[in-house]
TrEMBL record:
<dbReference type="GO" id="GO:0046872">
    <property type="term" value="F:metal ion binding"/>
</dbReference>
<dbReference type="InterPro" id="IPR010255">
    <property type="entry name" value="Haem_peroxidase_sf"/>
</dbReference>
<keyword id="KW-0575">Peroxidase</keyword>
<keyword id="KW-0732">Signal</keyword>
<dbReference type="GO" id="GO:0006979">
    <property type="term" value="P:response to oxidative stress"/>
</dbReference>
<keyword id="KW-0964">Secreted</keyword>
<dbReference type="InterPro" id="IPR019791">
    <property type="entry name" value="Haem_peroxidase_animal"/>
</dbReference>
<dbReference type="InterPro" id="IPR037120">
    <property type="entry name" value="Haem_peroxidase_sf_animal"/>
</dbReference>
<dbReference type="Pfam" id="PF03098">
    <property type="entry name" value="An_peroxidase"/>
</dbReference>
<keyword id="KW-0349">Heme</keyword>
<feature type="binding site" description="axial binding residue">
    <location>
        <position position="503"/>
    </location>
    <ligand>
        <name>heme b</name>
    </ligand>
</feature>
<keyword id="KW-0325">Glycoprotein</keyword>
<dbReference type="GO" id="GO:0005576">
    <property type="term" value="C:extracellular region"/>
</dbReference>
<keyword id="KW-0408">Iron</keyword>
<dbReference type="GO" id="GO:0020037">
    <property type="term" value="F:heme binding"/>
</dbReference>
<protein>
    <submittedName>
        <fullName>PXDN</fullName>
        <ecNumber>1.11.1.7</ecNumber>
    </submittedName>
</protein>
<keyword id="KW-0560">Oxidoreductase</keyword>
Length: 827
């Protein structure tokens, strides 16, 4: 990835170098009338606009030599007027359709993923006009649809700014405190030059531009021949659905699956469309509604047809402009802070963060004797409540916490670890609630990052990818490459496809391995939205966690358990969802480019036919996988990214294929290089060297030990307990020494030394970074005689070069002291 790395980290890669693949003159199957276009030339030379690889693969690239001209100011103004009218009309239609809407818990198939915030809905309402304006402005231009984005990019700033003013961009300027030592709750002000980067409720960034059907907004819909793409559910049946027994990993544990989901819920939550009054769209009964994109079920569907079902609900993600609010293609909103910063524990905005705090001792709220997460008393989450009135849904930083018990368990463990650390810090330092909360939060964020980069990612990506992309934590010392120009945001293709590889690791059953739940193994669909499974203090958290590392996860391959492809959030048998189909449909909804394009972005050869294992064919697929794809798609250029990526043979040392390894690696590089608060970094907000050494001792195993009743555990919980990864005593695992955070209130003054008759001085012996990393608070000077202000002003301070924390006493300070003294004298 030599050539593209910069573009992929710092912006959007929109030019691509076409590799020289198999050189047949006329690809079989190209219809008469379709212009074959320019053949790819010599390798490394043919740089083309990425969207020109629209329809018939690289054989059909239409080269754009003359940059298309932007629409006139007048055309744009008319477009805006029409757009405003259209959005108003759509709003009225929406109102009149509200009889079809369903409340959260009764909406099949989505569970808590439909918990969209009001803020997201508001942002999208504003953006709707911009997207419609963009569409109108280019409608009449005689250019290929794939070039519409390019045309809009040519609009001069003057015109754009005027439009922006009229539509009120929701991503406005914000004020930052550059001296703050802690992350903000919403992720803003991390990058001080671009305070909105990584903030919650901002758009997903893109590695490469979108590939919408109309170039701007409509889901990808037709194949290279102009026919409809295969139905998402058809692909799920032919490629992703299998019997459940055969595809276990032979090393990684089911905990690896769960940790992946947990960090996924830290860095991303897509905002899905809602119906009226925050209820949900039922797109099967009103498919024509704005933001409806239901999944048709084939009449011969092996599962759903037995229930006479012909449609699965699917709502589009809310549309937004990009962060700059320019006229362009539809983007999607991330409601979470993009950074890997513990937001799944603390929340992604100040209001959520505050609602989870005790405001005492720096602790987070708990329930059930501090053993469990706090209860959601207003009951805003979607979870299934049993008759027992003591059982409620749980609350955590991420609203999807109640999705299934293994997730609740991990969420609980991190909440408890926070409180454990906050308690220790409060006890040994006597800190205020705020100080203890922020320091504990900073430590937890660092531990989550360390476990991710040190334990989880190497298992998924393999050592080579970790080294190539500089993702490996150093054994000691600071990471010195924080880069203010690296965009930290979550990329759309990563969220809508690549990081969903974890869905393939999910087992058919959860395991409760514990004293009280003597090894229960319920089917996953019975566990969705079930907080009640956790309330058993002696069993819940501990036994479901033990069940995670004592079982293998499923292999990352095209196959997903039927618990996910037939029974996702099922309430009535036969009416659950299909997560594989949803992933495919979501990719199209977001305008994610097809598999082959992503291969080229990752400098891998695209497939020109379905032959397995050869360059120019499906190079990284085995025969059975290639065959399943060939039976489903009419051209390799149509393969959806999720489907093509997840079915690749894993790279050596890792668990995902080369395309996903590339995309996941790049994303975690952006999250490392672009995060001023990255735990290993040496920026202004760094840990002290001794503190960093402590953080690097953190292991997931020890964190589980500290917060459950488990007392022996394998050292590496990401691998299943085996003879080579045996359970050892918790006490033999390294422990963080929180005493390294002690006495950090100030940085260590020397004693006062008399300098002359009137002045005593002290020096800050440990200027930043001292052992605590804190400034010395207070004045370096003390005055013993304050009779003559004139005299004071002339006092020569000793040479203080090289001691950055010493401030000269200000004139105001002197005046204040003087007036105080005189008042004292007067009486
Ligand atoms: C029992 C386990 C899991 C269930 C039931 C589940 C379910 C879901 C559902 C319903 C969605 C929303 C789909 C959509 O509407 O587009 C989703 C999104 C997603 N899942 Fe999972 N998932 C699970 C585990 C995982 C794991 C292990 C990973 C990664 C390692 C993962 C990564 C993602 C990502 C990246 C998204 C997109 C994020 C977003 O839309 O906000 N999931 N999952
Ligand atoms: Ca986050």
């Amino acid at each position: 990835l030599q050539i593209n790395l910069n573009a992929l980290m710092k912006g959007t890669l929109d030019q691509i170098i076409i590799p020289n693949i198999k050189g047949q003159q006329e690809r079989p199957g190209i219809r008469p009338g379709v212009r074959p276009g320019i053949r790819p030339g010599r390798p490394g030379i043919n740089r083309v606009d990425i969207n020109s690889i629209g329809k018939i693969g690289i054989a059909g690239i239409h080269r754009i030599d003359v940059a298309p001209k932007a629409p006139s100011r007048k055309a744009i103004e008319t477009a805006l007027k029409t757009a405003t009218a259209k959005v108003r009309k759509d709003d009225r239609t929406e109102q009149s359709m509200r009889k079809f809407d369903t409340p959260d818990i009764r909406t099949e198939g989505f569970g808590p993923h439909l918990l969209t915030s009001l803020e997201a809905i508001e942002i999208s309402e504003n953006a709707q006009v911009m997207i419609e304006t963009a569409k109108n402005a280019v409608k009449k231009l005689r250019i290929d649809k794939s070039q519409r984005r390019k045309v809009l990019e040519q609009i001069p700033d003057g015109i754009l700014n005027k439009i922006k003013k009229q539509t009120s961009c929701p991503f406005g300027a914000i004020q930052c405190d550059p001296t703050s030592e802690y992350r903000t709750a919403d992720g803003s002000c991390n990058n001080l030059a671009n305070p909105l980067w990584g903030k919650s409720h901002t758009p997903f960034e893109r590695f490469i531009p979108s590939f919408y059907e109309d170039g701007l907004d409509d889901p990808r819909a037709t194949d290279v021949f102009g026919d409809p793409l295969p139905l998402a559910r058809d692909i799920s049946v032919k490629v992703h659905t299998v019997s459940d027994s055969t595809t276990q990993m032979n090393d990684l544990s089911h905990f690896s699956m769960e940790f992946g989901q947990f960090i996924s819920h830290d860095i991303q939550m897509n905002a899905l469309s809602k119906g009226q009054y925050l209820s949900n769209l039922n797109c099967c009964s009103s498919p024509q509604r704005r933001n409806c994109f239901p999944i048709p079920l084939p009449t011969n569907d092996p599962f759903y047809s037995t229930f006479n079902r012909t449609c699965m609900n699917f709502v589009r993600a809310l549309g937004t402009t990009n962060l700059e609010c320019t006229l362009g293609p539809r983007q999607q909103l991330n409601m979470n802070t993009h950074y890997l910063d513990g937001s799944a524990v603390y929340g992604s905005n100040k209001a959520t963060a505050d609602s989870l705090r005790q405001f005492s001792g720096g602790r987070l709220k708990t329930s059930t004797n501090n053993q469990l997460l706090p209860k959601d008393i207003p009951n805003k989450s979607s979870c299934i409540l049993p008759a027992n009135p003591n059982i409620k849904c749980f609350q955590a930083g991420d609203p999807r916490v109640n999705q299934q018990p293994a997730l609740i368990a991990l969420q609980t463990i991190w909440m408890k670890e926070h409180n454990r650390i906050a308690n220790t810090l409060t006890q040994s330092n006597g800190w205020t609630d705020e100080k203890a909360y922020q320091e504990a939060r900073k430590i937890i964020g660092a531990m989550i990052q360390h476990v991710t980069y040190n334990e989880y990612l190497p298992h998924i990506l393999g050592d080579q990818q970790m080294i190539d992309l500089d993702l490996k934590p150093k054994s000691s010392g600071y990471f010195t490459h924080y880069d203010t120009t690296t965009k930290p945001q979550i990329r759309n293709g990563f969220s809508a496809a690549a990081f969903r590889f974890g869905h393939s690791m999910v087992r058919q059953r959860l395991a409760y391995n514990g004293p009280l739940h003597s090894n229960q193994n319920p089917l996953l669909h019975n566990e969705f939205l079930r907080p009640d499974k956790i309330y058993d203090v002696n069993g819940g958290i501990s036994s479901v966690t033990r069940g995670l590392y004592e079982e293998f996860s499923q292999k990352v391959d095209r196959k997903m358990t039927k618990e996910l492809t037939e029974r996702l959030f099922e309430r009535t048998h036969g009416f659950g969802g299909d997560l594989a189909a949803v992933n495919i449909q979501r990719g199209r909804d977001h305008g994610i480019a097809s598999y082959n394009i992503w291969r080229m972005v990752c400098e891998l050869t695209p497939a020109d036919d379905f032959t397995a294992g050869v360059s120019g064919g499906l190079e990284h697929h085995s025969t059975a996988e290639a065959l399943a794809l060939a039976n489903t798609y009419s051209s390799p250029w149509d393969i959806d990214l999720f489907t093509g990526g997840v079915s690749e043979t894993p790279i050596s040392g890792g668990k995902v294929g080369p395309t996903f390894a590339c995309m996941i690696g790049l994303q975690f590089r952006a999250l490392k290089f672009g995060d001023r608060f990255f735990y290993e970094g040496n920026t202004d907000v760094k840990f002290t060297p001794t503190q960093l050494t402590e953080i690097k001792k953190a292991t997931m195993a020890r964190i589980i030990c500290e917060n459950t009743n488990i007392n022996s555990i394998p050292k590496d919980v990401f691998r299943k307990t085996t003879s080579s990864n045996p359970e050892i005593s918790c006490s033999s695992l390294p422990e963080l020494n929180l005493q390294k955070w002690k006495n950090c209130v100030d940085g260590g003054w020397s004693g006062f030394v008399k300098k002359n008759r009137c002045v005593k001085m002290r020096v800050c012996n440990n200027p930043k970074p001292n052992s605590c990393g804190k400034k010395c608070v207070g004045s370096p000077v003390e005055f013993t005689c304050l009779n003559n202000i004139k005299k004071l002003k002339n006092i020569k301070l000793p040479n203080i070069n090289g001691l950055p924390n010493i401030e000269r006493p200000s004139i105001t300070l002197l005046r204040n002291i003087k007036s105080l003294q005189s008042r004292r004298r007067k009486g």
